[in-house]
Amino acid sequence: MAESYKIDLIEAGGVNEVARKLEKVVGVESAKPGYLDVMTLLSLPDHLRKTATAVCKLGRATADEVADETGRTRAMESAYLNQLVRMGYLKKERVGRKVYFYVEV
Asked: What pTM does this model have?
């Protein structure tokens, strides 16, 4: 993507700088807030990126299912999933006693 917008990654100095340069070219208004695209995933801390990637792979999942995918505890994944919900990247829905997390498209 950087090549198509004539952005030199070495010159850019990191992911945040690349994102700022892309915003100038593409425009911030074209991106939906809370949308999980590649640049957003790259900007997330490693622990949240792993959780968000697992939800993207599974589609709609509980904290238990995400924990099975990531190899971490359910409690830890529940905290990370709720953090991603507060950040606006995931949605959650309660069905009976289960809470499902998903990416709204």
From this structure: 0.67
